[in-house]
Design brief:
This protein has about 260 residues and is α+β, with helices and mostly antiparallel strands. The chain folds into 2 domains: about 160 residues, no CATH class; about 80 residues, no CATH class. It is about 35% helix and about 15% strand. It has 8 helices and 8 strands; from the N terminus they run αββαββββαααααββα. The chain has a 6-stranded mixed beta sheet with strand order 1-2-6-5-4-3, with helices on both faces. A two-stranded antiparallel sheet has the order 7-8.
Length: about 260
């Protein structure tokens, strides 16, 4: 599956030893510990980006968390801008958990953070802290910031999960048909619609971050479900919509941006 995913990338971005590209970091979530993580091919541009595998918090990880708490072995996490991330700590637990079934160089990184207001605690949370764990084969010194830098790189890849959540909100939570091929067609239509909405945000609402970054349900209510009509008069194409709508001005501006983007 990893090979198929990499083959779907544009040629200039594939981890081919014959091409000078940036390192690739596959990231996935596993419900059970696999016998061996996939390893991307090294490239002339530098060492491989490393594999990121999110692991479930089982009793072994919980024991490691207890040991780190007693030894005060946690270090502050860092944010995207490089500053300290409030209420979050990270630690390396490679020597606290048996990783003999994994290839040499495998590292286990743990993170604990205060849950956001209103979030329910899980059975795997410790002392009111949300615990997450992930495996990587990235050696020390490759990513700046040491262990905190590895955790930041892993957290930045979580935007993929945001896209999956949006796809579920646009028709992929359940496949509605009994036929496999009908569901395949539904999947392609939903993915196409999601791509169109994404490009609409990027091109049309680049000057309005509040609409460009909103969740799909909110974007659907504010923009997509507004009654409007496209008319032509005096050789001009016009967008007619309710002027009293709160976001009418932003929609009109986005309409002009999209029209002129491909001229």
């Amino acid at each position: 599956m990893l090979a198929q995913a990499l083959a779907a990338l544009p040629a200039a971005w594939r981890p081919d030893p014959g091409l000078a590209i940036i390192p690739t970091s596959p990231r996935c979530w596993c419900a059970a510990t696999p016998p061996e993580p996939p390893t991307p091919s090294p490239t002339p541009a530098g060492p491989p980006g490393g594999v990121l595998l999110r692991l479930p918090v089982d009793w072994r990880v919980q024991d490691a968390v207890d040991t780190l708490n007693l030894a005060e072995g946690w270090y502050p996490a860092i944010g995207t801008a490089g500053g300290l991330r409030d209420g979050a700590w990270i630690a390396e637990a490679t020597t606290l958990v048996n990783l003999s079934s994994w290839p040499p160089g495998t590292r286990l990184i743990l993170r604990k953070e205060r849950p956001h207001p209103g979030a329910q605690l899980r059975f795997t949370d410790a002392d009111g802290m949300r615990i997450t764990a992930f495996i990587t084969d990235t050696p020390p010194g490759v990513v700046s910031g040491q262990v905190a830098g590895l955790e930041l790189r892993h957290r930045q890849h979580a935007r993929v999960e945001d896209r999956i959540r949006e796809l579920k909100a646009t028709g992929l939570r359940n496949l509605p048909c009994h036929s496999f091929w009908a569901n395949a067609a539904w999947l392609e239509i939903a993915l196409t619609a999601a791509d169109l909405v994404t490009w609409c945000r990027l091109i049309g609402f680049r000057t309005h971050p509040g609409l460009a970054r909103t969740e799909i349900a909110t974007f659907r209510y504010r923009v997509l479900h507004v009654a409007a009509r496209i008319t032509r008069s005096a050789r001009q194409t016009c967008l007619r919509l309710d002027a009293t709508w709160r976001w009418a001005a932003q929609i009109a501006t986005a309409w002009q941006h999209i029209r002129t983007a491909f001229d």
